[in-house]
Amino acid sequence: MNEKPEWLKKITNLPEINQTIKFFGGHQQRVSAGWKAERETHFAFEIMIILEGVQHSDFTSFAFDYPAGSILLIPPGLSHENSCGSKEGMRYFCVHFDIDDPEIQQNLLMYCPLLLQADNEGYDEIRQVLLAYVALLDKDTFTLRERLLVERLLIDLLIGLLDYAQHAQKRMESSDSSTLVLGKAIADTIQTNFRTFTQYPQEENRELLTMKNVADGLSISESTMLKVFKKVFFHSPKQYLDELRFNEAKFLLHQPKLAVGEIAEVIGYQNASHFSRQFKRWSGLSPNEYREMNRTQSEQPH
To answer: Do residues 44 and 152 both lie within one domain?
Structure first.
């Protein structure tokens, strides 16, 4: 490619876009009392809105009941089991999506909780997109225009989630709650340590990936760190690190020249077999199966 001329370098240009956003379809379902879905773990984000009734969700170490109107954002790799929690039945809509941009992933992981809060300024944007998806389900077939509309709504959904994350970040940074401030400091430290390790994956840096290192760096005990982080983010610091590892692994698996063993090393696993077993626990797929699935999808005509 020819180098840009000087006059063009002085002009403000729109950013180049080179990222993959995947939409795995969405569905609405009405279920009766007693309904239960099998425990599952996704390699993508899942967002769902409870339209009628109450959903009971079990996330292994904690469980909640979500009434009608609740919007849940379930991150990749989080094991969960959903069931109907109301005698009159339940109706819900859910959709799965994935994006290979680590910065966007980290924003969603850090600032978008399992249960999105209605008092956040980004909440209504997200709700409107989900209801627009529900309205589209009345169609028997989807024309090209409607398929493009589904894709546009996905962009709107991501913008709404990023707006939500931005408002949540501002609220957290301006909060006088010591719990919120410490919770964010823990998340920032875990993320910074992980990024440092991925750039310099050397044995002497492996300690950065331990929870003891994070707690020591903040001059708190590991038990205090666990209690505070769970209260703010509804999962453990170790689970947050695993989410960062999982998303980084997915991103790196899109790079065909990187061997699975090299990816394992970059995200902190000392051997490829351990990484492969863990990746399958996260996603239900081995690293090679995930890589092949994405290769096949990218070759399909659009």
So the answer is: yes
Do 148 and 186 sit in the same domain of this protein? no
Q: Model's pTM, two decimal places?
A: 0.78
Work out the end-to-end distance of the chain between its first and last CA atoms, rounded to an integer number of angstroms.
Answer: 27
Same domain, 102 and 184: no
- Cα distances (angstroms) measured from residue 197 to each of 49, 202, 208: 37, 7, 7
**Domain containing 69: what range?**
21-174
At a CB cut-off of 8 Å and minimum separation 6, what does 257 contact?
Answer: none
Helices (H), the chain: 6-9, 102-111, 123-136, 144-174, 178-199, 211-217, 222-233, 237-253, 260-266, 272-283, 287-299
Looking up tokens 């950065």 gives 208
Last residue within a domain, chosen from 151, 174, 197: 174
Left (φ > 0), alpha (ψ -120 to 50) or beta: where does 97 sit?
beta
Residue ranges for the chain with pLDDT beneath 50? 302
- Residue 238 vs residues 8, 20, 47: alpha-carbon distances, Å: 47, 27, 22
**What is the per-residue pLDDT for 101?**
82
The total of structural domains in the chain comes to 2
Are 111 and 198 contained in the same domain? Answer: no
Sign of the C-alpha dihedral, residues 37, 38, 41, 43? negative
125, 141, 174: which is the final residue of a domain?
A: 174
Q: What pLDDT is stored for residue 20 in this prediction? A: 78
How is residue 68 written in tokens? Answer: 């009608």
- State the Cα–Cα distance between residues 283 and 75, nearest whole angstrom: 11
Amino acid 58: pLDDT: 94
